[in-house]
Amino acid sequence: MKRAHILVTGHGPLRVVRICAAASLVLSAVIHVQLAPGYQQAAPGGIGQGTLFLIQAGAAILAAVFILLKNTRTAFAAAASVALSSLAAVILYRYVQVPAMGPLPSMYEPVWYTAKVITAVAEAIAGGLAVTGYGLLLRKTRRGPWIQPRSQHASAA
Q1: Contact 80, 130 (CB under 8 A)
Q2: Which of 25, 49, 99, 106 has the fewest CB atoms lying closer than 10 Å?
């Protein structure tokens, strides 16, 4: 009975969620840093895809550090935002030919390759874990009569 209560409120499972989400964000960041120079060649002096890759990598590292340092809904929301927006960009620019908009280049790339797949999977995992962590913390802070540990629920009936 106590085990179900620990799953929601204990630091053990949340710590695992935080570490795995951070590791996934770092993996995405590392790959983006490695790919950035090759993608910047199209716009060597301006905002190119390589620059955007470096910005994404920086945001992912900041979100990873934030989620490791703070066990808060804000940290989980930041990590989810970075991971899921990066995943959305990968999928969008894989399947839709979005034209250049202002300083942002057209980044249409209609192929999947190993590094792209790895980043997409890492971003999906990080986003899913961050949303899970947010939900667990939300459930912990909004515990009401409808969410009770099994021992209390059984005694109320």
Answers
A1: yes
A2: 99
Residue type at position 156: A
Among all chains, which residue has been given the structure tokens 């995943």? 87
Q: What are the C-alpha distances in Å from 72 to residues 15, 41, 68, 77, 138?
A: 11, 40, 10, 9, 9
pLDDT of 26-47, one tens digit each? Answer: 999 999 999 999 888 766 666 8
Using one digit for the tens of pLDDT, what is the confidence trace for 61-70? 999 999 999 9
Read off the pLDDT of residues 143-153 as tens digits, 9 standing for 90 and up: 655 445 556 55
Q: CB count, 10 Å around CB of 69? A: 11
pLDDT per position as a tens digit, 109-121: 999 999 999 999 9
pLDDT of res. 103:
80
Structural domain boundaries in the chain: 2-144
Give the helix ranges, DSSP H, for 41-102.
Answer: 49-69, 73-95
Q: Is 72 exposed, middle or buried (0-12, 13-18, 19+ CB in 10 A)?
A: middle
User: Which residues touch 96 (CB under 8 Å, ≥6 apart)?
Assistant: 108
Tokens for 125, please give them.
Answer: 């995992």
